[in-house]
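Q: Hi! Curious about what CXXC-20-CXXC protein looks like structurally. Here's the sequence.
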Amino acid sequence: MNIQKCVTCGVQFTWKEVQKSNRYKPLVCRKCGTKHKVTKMTRFLVGLLILIVAFIFYLTNFYYYLSTTIFIIAAYLSFPYFAKYEAVQNHK
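A: Let's find out. The predicted structure is below.
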């Protein structure tokens, strides 16, 4: 798993750049200025993953609060590696 590159110029985004856009803010390439947004599929997969893990923790009574906290931290730290972005089309 690698952090995605700019779809226009190919510059690799840094972990820090992607983390700053973690809340689905546009990610701007530092070289060419192309704006990128998180794909709908990434949003769907993140939401689905959270629901599945929360449901499993609920069913197993596996120290619910501790495991939920660990999962949230792990998801936050690994987000840049599985998030996919697409270039934003400029409408005139």
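A: A fun detail: DSSP finds three helices and three strands in the chain.
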